[in-house]
Write a structure and sequence with these properties.
610 residues; alpha/beta; Ferritin; Rossmann fold; 9-stranded mixed β-sheet; two-stranded antiparallel sheet; 22 helices; 15 strands; globular
Length: 610
């Protein structure tokens, strides 16, 4: 949690610095966006390059007493982009101020007279290394003054990016992507999906090998997270997976290819009118996909019904059509397409607005047909504020054509609207442990108890104890209290100049204990509900329902809240009547203080002659 707060702070600081520079230049947001993202791409690529280089050199064989030099193929194996020296961020950020007299030449042997030319050259060198990036990276850095460009390079060389650790620059990239979205895209949701939602989709689908299609791929988050999932399982994503994407907005497709390249992934991404999924199956993949993942734009209207119908991929028929022969809400076009793309053992996971789970008329007919297939697998309700720019709640849908016979008649409903981590006032997310806990419910529903036990083992490892989780929690709370008391005494005893340093040291120790306490609480959350690993319906959280119940008793609703009910309220031991009296007294006291303050202000204003 401490890291999440630090990252949010860093995101905001970097954005503010970069945007101030934009305001001081003559560049519009559209002119500024792609070059700035290109610099973050370079910084991100360099971070991954250095990490991969360290791994490569660790076991590097020697010849003639010298370590064998690293090669581009070594980095591909580590899912990282190979960077020639002149394309490495450290090289660029340390260039002399006077480029013109530095004698630098580009890769064609031509002299370079500005920093913009040097950065353009870095981009061209990278395109030479990576076929799918050819013609994709921004190369308009000569539009920037050398001073502005040097300052931007310095901003993204922030040491905090490395200190926080993890995939921080990727997240900064996503943050900037989204901030620019307001100015350069018609719909923020077109290309940005919150990372925790993407992770949840990937974790439930468990991709290992085969064809993955994202027909609304935006910046490529589904591909990147799938690559991480497959690589983490000990395989190489580029060897076992084939990535296909469609993205109507060419600009967003550029971002997708940059994002994939920096993660060492190759894919086939189509953009423009031919990639408008409403009317085109650009890769001819209908009925051929092992996995479909997407966060399509919600509630799109004015989709030409005849063109959509002619494009096929509608196994359950057309949604409602208005008098203008248009589909006025395309949610069920998307849902139908996702199902249609699957092969006979395929899985799909996608984001939809919450309203789609029980919409009426033709939507309901399509939903009934879907439920009757037995391929609706899991439905997860998500709380507000998971998106950077939208506060609406959503639902994650999952189809599975390889469901075991035992589960053919069942659907797992999870209502996770009350389960999340607050990042700040406007943003919620699932922590890694919360993602694992939600995933554990799916494992138990599928009978995958080994994964559940492994997760319990991971909890014990992270907590560095084999006591029961409640005892670990109590011990951590006691340690935190003791540490806070110790900190207070130490700060009071410290010399004035040393107080901040002493406080910072204790803050760090307390934050580490707090993080462990959070993990212990998540372990308790899980084990109190499912013990040693037996699925159970939990009121307010999860419920397995059969098709007859869904179709006949619930009117084909796929809204998790309609099944899981409400969690029983815990008695907090507070007498309601007494507490209301206390609140009333507090309000009277506050009102009195407010009146007195207002009188003082008015009196002061009179004396000032206002």
């Amino acid at each position: 949690m401490a890291d999440a707060v630090n990252i949010r702070k860093l995101e905001a600081e970097l954005w503010e610095s970069a945007d101030l520079l934009r305001q001081g230049s003559k560049l519009t947001s559209n002119q500024y966006c792609m070059p700035v993202l290109g610099l973050i791409f370079l910084r991100y690529a360099y971070g991954r390059y250095k990490a991969a280089e360290k791994e490569i050199l660790k076991d590097r064989p020697m010849r003639g007493g010298r370590v064998l030099p690293v090669e581009a193929s070594d980095f591909k194996e580590k899912s990282a982009l190979y960077l020639p020296k002149e394309a490495q961020y450290e090289y660029l950020v340390n260039l002399p101020e006077d480029i013109a007299s530095s004698g630098l030449e580009n890769y064609r042997g031509e002299p370079m007279g500005s920093l913009g030319e040097v950065v353009n050259n870095a981009m061209e060198l990278i395109e030479e290394q990576e076929e799918q990036l050819q013609g994709i990276l921004p190369k308009n850095y000569t539009d920037f003054t050398d001073e502005l460009l040097a300052e931007l390079l310095r901003i993204f060389n922030n040491k905090a990016l490395d200190d926080i650790g993890g995939d921080v620059i990727g997240r900064i990239y996503e943050y900037f992507l989204n901030k620019f979205a307001k100015n350069v895209a018609s719909d923020d949701g077109v290309f940005f999906t919150p990372k925790s939602l993407v992770k949840m989709i990937v974790n439930v689908l468990e991709p290992k090998s085969g064809i993955l299609l994202d027909p609304a791929c935006g910046s490529g988050g589904m591909f990147v997270q799938t690559g991480d999932f497959v690589n983490h399982a000990g395989m190489r994503a580029n060897n076992t997976m084939t990535f296909y994407g469609q993205e109507k907005v060419a600009y967003n497709a550029q971002l997708c290819l940059m994002n994939m390249a920096v993660h060492g992934l190759t894919g086939r991404i189509k953009s423009g009118d031919e990639a408008n999924t409403f009317y085109h199956d650009a890769h001819n993949l209908n009925g051929k996909c092992d996995y479909v993942m997407a966060n399509p734009p919600f509630n799109v209207d004015k989709v030409k019904a005849e063109s959509a119908e002619a494009a096929d991929r509608l196994p359950f028929g057309m949604p409602a059509i208005n008098k203008n022969k248009e589909v006025s809400n395309a949610n069920y076009l998307w849902i139908s397409y996702f199902y249609s793309y699957l092969n006979d053992h395929g899985r799909a996971g996608f984001v939809m607005p919450s309203s789609a789970t029980d919409s009426s008329r033709k939507d309901k007919d399509i939903r009934e047909a879907l439920i009757k297939t037995g391929h609706v697998d899991v439905m997860i309700s998500v709380a507000n504020n998971f998106f950077y720019t939208k506060s609406l709640p959503c639902t994650l849908w999952f189809f599975d054509k390889r469901k075991s016979e035992e589960l053919q008649d069942k659907v797992l409903f999870i209502d996770a609207r009350n389960y999340y981590t607050v990042v700040d006032r406007t943003l919620n997310e699932w922590s890694d442990w919360q993602l694992k806990n939600l995933n554990a419910i799916v494992w138990l529903y599928r009978g995958e108890t080994d994964e559940y036990r492994e997760l319990i083992s991971d909890y014990y490892t992270a907590l560095e104890s084999d006591d029961d989780f409640a005892s670990i929690k109590d011990a951590l709370e006691k340690k935190i209290q003791d540490k806070q008391k110790e900190a207070k005494e130490a700060v009071e005893a410290a010399k004035r100049k040393e107080k901040k340093v002493v406080q910072a040291k204790f803050d760090e120790e307390i934050a580490a204990l707090d993080e462990k306490l959070t993990i212990a609480k998540e372990a308790i959350w899980l084990t109190e509900k499912f013990g040693e690993g037996i699925y159970a319906d939990i009121p307010g959280l999860c419920k397995v329902a059969d098709r007859k119940t869904i179709l006949e008793e619930k009117g084909a609703s796929l809204t998790p809240g309609a099944y899981v009910g409400v969690a029983p309220e815990e008695d907090d031991g507070v007498d309601f009547t007494e507490r209301m009296k206390e609140i009333h007294q507090e309000l009277l006291k506050l009102q009195k203080e407010s009146n007195e303050l207002m009188e003082t202000i008015l009196k002061d204003m009179e004396e000032m002659g206002v």
